[in-house]
Every structure is written in C-alpha cells, then in structure tokens.
C-alpha cells in the first residue's frame, strides 16, 4: 500500500492582505513525527491549520495552491470537509474536553459517524483510554464529567477522542506547552509510541522538544519554509545560514 502523506504545493495564505504563508512546497511523511519550528509569528500554526482547512474560520483569508492529503487536494472545489477532518486528529494548546462525561467524550466522534451499539462503544472507550495510558486512572469514573480530570489527563483524553475516529494524522499545536513537565513528558512519549501508526505533525517553539522527538523538521521564518529535512540531518548538518543561526540561539 502506498504510504499516506501530506503534500503541499505552492501554498500561499493571505489574511487581511498580509502575506502569511509564502509559496510553501513540502511533503510531510506519514508514520513519523514532524516538528514545525521557528520564531513566534512565522506562520507555524497557520501552516498546521491549512492541513485540515481550519483556516476557513478566519475572516478575510485567501488561500491559493494545493494541499494533497492521501493524493486528494483538500482545496479542490468539490472537496468535502467532514471527510477531510476525519483523517486529522487535532490537539490544541489547551485541552478542550467536551462538557460531558469521560465516556461520552471518547465516543462523541464515533456517534457522529453512526456507531450506536453500546457494547461496541464500550470496547472503543477502553481501547483508546488504554492507548493513552488513562484506563487504569479513570475506569471507575467513566460517567463523571471530563472537566474534573487534571489538565494533563484532559489532554490525554482529547488525544484519545481524536484517535477514536481513526485518523491518519495527528495535528498538535503546541500541545504540551500548557502542561506541567510530567504531563508534557507523557504526551511526548505517547507521540513516540503512536508514530508507528500515525503521522504526527506538531508545532513547537521549544527547540529542545524537537531535538528529543522529531524524525523530520520543518523550519519556518517569516512565512517561508527555510529548510525541511530528516532530524539528524537538520540538527547535525543544517544547510541554510538562517537555520544555523536559529540552532545556535542567535534568535528565537
Ligand atoms: N486570524 C488572524 N487574523 C490576522 N492575522 C493573523 C491571524 N492569524 C494569524 N495571523 C498572523 O499571521 C502570522 C502567523 O501567525 P501564526 O499564528 O501562524 O504564527 P506562529 O508561528 O504559529 O506563531 P506563535 O509561535 O507565536 O504561535 C502572524 O503575523 C499573525 O499575526
């Protein structure tokens, strides 16, 4: 089977006439952790949002170019948004559990996609809570509100909720920056475990985090992709002057 990937071609994004993403050409590999790094405001989140058409919620946005997910241009006129989003699990900076029980949080997406059988839903809940290492912590209180969990647990719950709809990719926007070091480490370790099954794309502003877990690195500066390479190559043998400066901490 052909490996799924995200291919970005001549992607330009304008917001209020500001040129935010400048002619981005890039292939994001599947079954690897890709870290998008670069200084604040360089367009990391905008690039991530372009992968599941989240930018369309922004006012005065204009997007040109292609994003091919699994060979399909998600910006083609007849492309359907639910179908695209199903391929992408999204993890935001702050955990955002739905205002319902732990159980219902996990099954929310499945129910939208038509799974109603209670026994099947129970199996799904246990499977994905185990996948994120939460089962033993919460199995006795599946029907209590998710909001009562700790922030770190909530973030793992949100990850489990995303996984439950069986996406191909996980998009994580600084998904550990609001967490304490222990919870943050748990999420990092989960990403490392999950990369055998999913393409994980994470925006991070900590270079150290990228050094710890990235397989592939995309370095952006002022809306442009300056350099994209396998992590070992990127960190040990950067090609571009700007990359070298960024890695030595000349700017951050
Ligand atoms: N909704 C919006 N309206 C206007 N400008 C926006 C909007 N979203 C992003 N921008 C602008 O686009 C540029 C890129 O923003 P983006 O959030 O993608 O950068 P980033 O690299 O993720 O930054 P950070 O690391 O600070 O989160 C910034 O100049 C920002 O001000």
TrEMBL record:
Q: Which domain of life is it from?
A: Bacteria
Q: Does the keyword Nucleus apply?
A: no
What is an annotated GO biological process for this record, any one? phosphate ion transmembrane transport
Keywords attached to this Swiss-Prot or TrEMBL record, sorted alphabetically, are: ATP-binding, Nucleotide-binding, Phosphate transport, Transport
Care to name a GO molecular-function term for this sequence? Answer: phosphate transmembrane transporter activity
Task: Tell me yes or no: is Transport among this UniProt entry's keywords.
Answer: yes
PROSITE patterns linked to this entry: ABC_TRANSPORTER_1 (PS00211), ABC_TRANSPORTER_2 (PS50893)
Task: Provide GO CC annotations from the record.
Answer: membrane
Can you give the residue ranges of the ABC transporter domain? 6-247
* Protein name according to UniProt: Phosphate transport ATP-binding protein PstB
Native species: Mucinivorans hirudinis
């Amino acid at each position: 089977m052909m490996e799924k990937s995200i291919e970005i071609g001549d992607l330009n994004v304008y917001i209020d006439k500001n040129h935010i993403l400048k002619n981005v050409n890039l292939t994001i590999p599947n079954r690897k952790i890709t870290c998008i790094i670069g200084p604040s405001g360089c367009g990391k989140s905008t690039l991530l949002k372009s992968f599941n058409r989240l930018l369309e919620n922004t006012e005065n946005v204009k997007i040109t170019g292609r994003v091919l997910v699994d060979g399909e241009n998600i910006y083609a006129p007849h492309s359907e948004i639910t179908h695209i989003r199903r391929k992408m699990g999204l993890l935001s900076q702050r955990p955002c559990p739905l205002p319902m029980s732990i159980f219902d949080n996990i099954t929310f997406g499945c129910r939208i996609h038509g799974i109603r059988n209670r026994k099947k839903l129970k199996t799904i809940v246990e499977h994905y809570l185990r996948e994120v290492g939460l089962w033993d912590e919460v199995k006795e209180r599946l029907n209590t509100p998710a909001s009562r969990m700790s922030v770190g647990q909530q973030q793992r719950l949100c990850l489990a909720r995303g996984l439950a709809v069986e996406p191909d990719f996980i998009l994580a926007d600084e998904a550990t920056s609001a967490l304490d070091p222990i919870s943050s480490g748990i999420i990092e370790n989960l990403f490392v475990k999950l990369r055998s099954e999913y393409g994980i794309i994470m925006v991070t502003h900590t270079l150290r985090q990228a050094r710890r877990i990235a397989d592939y690195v995309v370095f952006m500066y002022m809306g442009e992709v300056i350099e994209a390479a396998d992590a070992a190559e990127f960190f040990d043998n950067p090609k571009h002057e700007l990359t070298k400066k960024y890695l030595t901490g000349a700017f951050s």
